[in-house]
Design brief:
heterotrimer; A mainly alpha (174); B mainly alpha (118); C mainly alpha (410); A: 174 residues; mainly alpha; globular; B: 118 residues
């Protein structure tokens, strides 16, 4: 085999690139699609991409939770919100408004700052994994009810408040 | 462990190809005689009045919200279930408290009539 | 040895170079996934035939009996007919979501194959998060239904799309909570580990009948009811309610695109049955399955087909519920009971008692749940029976009808 000027990408890198392309394309559809329902579909694609990135990083549990919560619940909720409003559902809405120029500048700057941070941080080299597969999930479970038991119960309170808020928001007053 | 997900990836590719192939095959095998009546919206032989959008109940949105909250709760219960064997009794009580707080939320919804579908 | 290890070894024996290990693995997985996915297609033909035969027997008919032995090839003929149908796309449909929806619904169902253990060494991918993975796939089905409902640009389809989401979301919570019960017992979400845990050792011999249904009948019942709703089967098929919404979200679909929704629905009920078998009915475990490995897949398929037939039996006998009844049953009966059951199980299994007392208490809690669910269902059906008898009774009898004392055989 002739020598290549660069090392061949590993399978993982190839798959990561595909997932990255899917995520970015999905995100672009969210921003650029004139139809809000198509934006919601783009959002789903981007969520799937994010789940794929988690799985490649061996965080299977987070990846699956991502699909379960973001695709299963959040996007459905967003779609509902779109469908409940007549004007948004059919017909094109312009993806731009008066502030799109400013927004574009600000997001580009944020992006540059993020790139700067990511490339300047000395990331620790990958050593031995702390735990693997099944142990990761079990460790997470132990952490919830031992070290982090107070935040965990506060989270339950937060969810309770959210439930109460949901009633106030969405109830039809008769 | 990642190679296991390789199987999932390959299966998902095949799972996409199968329905696409079937639909494309059906598209080319079937006859094609389009006419405006045929491609019109079906409404039991009656012409559709207005656009597809009809007034929807806000209740659907409320169910979505309640579902989201319980979904998050269930996600938190799964790692605890996996770690259950080496949890102390105190930890289990913490987990149970978590469930009971949410059960309170469900009863709150119930009292406020958010679960009624009238 | 796992099937994939065996296949990888075979390729190396045939002279595959060691440095291309990723390709060897890829080829192995491709072969496995290809066989699995195509077997599922053939399975779907069989499932539709079973459904028709069971339903027709219940309705005192014979069912398909012309093509092939016992009409077995009727579905093949139907598939060919659908293939030759015109591919109509409504002019006002949103092309992207309209065309993507049937594909997505099949993908969401076929992906479940990856984690189903057919035998001790026969599992596509033994994921550590298999149980949650299966639940997450359900969200693909929800998206597909929403896309079909919205994309068809049809009032019936959109209404059905909304109903689908309300139904699938509501029943997902009790289903997941019921799935949590075996996970709590085993301490793993891997389907293979859950299957393995359901063995019963008598000395050194594995009898293979330590099925969780004997310990968790309550969780099984909740799972079964929720799975019926998730599979959009008859007591809960109001999202396609032929008499009100014509066909639900796939009303505007014809030919092969319709066939894809049909395929997805039948495979989905089969797979939900398969999950019930893995979680509660011992998976591939059974008498002598440990000694004769070939028995594993046979037991697994036999149990799954049995569950499938039971689902069709329910489909053939129960009337459709109304949307308010359906929603209330999920949120006011199943969710509180499932949560109570999980809480009870968490506490009971940690009590410092001899282990068999723990198990006995767990079983008692489960039986209490079964009794509660059956009582609620029973009183509901009794009420409905009185109501429908009143509705169809001659006018003069209204007001004189008494609640039905015993079933009169109708």
């Amino acid at each position: 085999m002739p020598e290549l000027p660069f090392p061949l990408p590993t399978v993982q890198q190839v798959i990561f690139s595909m997932i990255a392309v899917l995520t970015v394309l999905g995100a672009l559809v969210v921003v650029l699609a004139p139809n809000l329902f198509h934006s919601a579909l783009g959002l789903v694609a981007a969520f799937f991409g994010a789940a794929g990135v988690y799985i490649i990083a061996e965080a299977e549990f987070i990846g699956v939770s991502q699909v379960l919560i973001y695709v299963g619940a959040i996007s459905t909720l967003i779609t509902f919100a779109i469908m409940l409003t007549r004007g948004m559902m059919f017909g094109a809405t312009s993806p731009r408004n008066r502030q799109w120029g400013t927004a574009a500048i600000i997001t580009s700057l944020t992006f540059l700052v993020l790139v700067g941070i990511v490339s300047s941080v000395p990331w620790p080299a990958v050593g031995e994994p702390i735990s693997q597969g099944h142990e990761i999930i079990a460790g997470l479970g132990r952490a919830f009810v031992n070290e982090y038991v107070v935040p965990f119960l506060l989270l339950a309170m937060l969810l309770l408040v959210a439930l109460a808020g949901a009633i106030v928001l969405a109830r039809d007053y008769k | 462990m990642l190679s296991q997900w390789g199987f999932v990836l390959i299966l998902s590719a095949i799972a996409v190809v199968i329905p696409v192939a079937a639909i494309v095959l059906g598209h080319f095998l079937g006859p094609r005689r389009p006419d405006p009546i045929k491609t019109d919206v079906y409404e039991s032989g009656v012409e559709t009045i207005g656009d597809t959008w009809v007034q929807f109940r806000a209740q659907y949105y409320l169910i979505g919200l309640i579902f989201l909250i319980f979904d998050v709760e269930v996600i938190f219960l799964f790692p605890i279930a996996v770690a259950y064997a080496d949890l102390s009794f105190f930890s289990v009580i913490a987990a149970v408290t978590f469930v009971i707080i949410l059960l309170l939320g469900l009863f709150l919804e119930w009292r406020k009539g958010a679960l009624e579908w009238t | 040895m796992n099937w994939s290890d065996a296949l990888i070894q075979l390729q190396y024996d045939l002279g595959a170079p060691q440095e291309l290990s990723w390709l060897v693995e890829g080829v192995t997985y491709f072969i496995g996934a290809f066989i699995l996915a195509n077997a599922a297609l053939i399975l779907a033909l069989l499932l539709i035939w079973i459904t028709r035969k069971v339903i027709s027997r219940i309705q005192d008919r014979i069912g398909p009996n012309r093509i092939g032995p016992y009409g077995l090839f009727q579905t093949v003929a139907d598939a060919l007919k659908l293939l030759s149908k015109e591919d109509i796309t409504p002019a006002s449909a949103d092309k992207i979501s309209y065309l993507l929806a049937p594909v997505l619904s099949v993908v969401g169902v076929l992906m479940a194959l990856a984690v189903i253990p057919f035998g001790p060494a026969l599992i596509g991918a033994d994921l550590n998060v298999a149980v949650l993975y299966l639940v997450a796939l359900g969200s693909l089905g929800i998206m597909a239904a929403l896309m079909a409902g919205w994309g068809s640009n049809n009032k019936y389809a959109l209404l059905a799309g909304f109903r689908v989401v309300a139904q699938l979301l509501s029943y997902e919570i009790p289903m997941v909570l019921a799935m949590l019960a075996p996970v709590l017992l085993v301490g793993s979400m891997s389907m293979q580990r859950i299957s393995e845990a359901q063995s019963l050792y008598l000395g050194p011999i594995n009898l293979g009948i330590g099925w969780f249904i004997f310990l968790l009948p309550g969780a099984f019942l909740i799972y079964l009811i929720a799975a019926l709703a998730e599979a959009e089967q008859t007591p809960f098929d109001l999202l396609e309610a032929e008499s009100e919404l014509i066909a639900g979200f796939h009303i505007e679909y014809s030919g092969m695109k319709f066939a894809m929704f049909f395929l997805a629905q039948f495979l989905n009920s089969f797979f939900l049955g398969a999950i019930a078998v893995v979680l509660f009915l011992g998976g591939w475990q059974g008498p002598f399955a440990a000694q004769i490995p070939l028995l594993g897949p046979i037991y697994f398929l036999a149990k799954t087909f049995l569950v499938y037939i039971v689902i069709q039996w329910i489909k053939g006998t129960f009337p459709r519920v109304r949307i308010d009844q359906m929603m209330q049953f999920a949120w006011k009966v199943l969710v509180p009971l499932a949560l109570a059951l999980i809480t009870a199980q968490m506490i009971i299994m940690k009590l410092p008692l001899p282990i068999w007392i723990n198990y006995a208490l767990l079983l008692a809690a489960n039986i209490a749940v079964v009794v509660a669910v059956l009582n609620i269902l029973g009183s509901y059906f009794e009420r409905e029976q009185v109501r429908s008898k009143r509705a169809f009774a001659p006018r003069s009898l209204i007001g004189t009808m008494q609640p039905v004392q015993s079933s009169s055989g109708d």
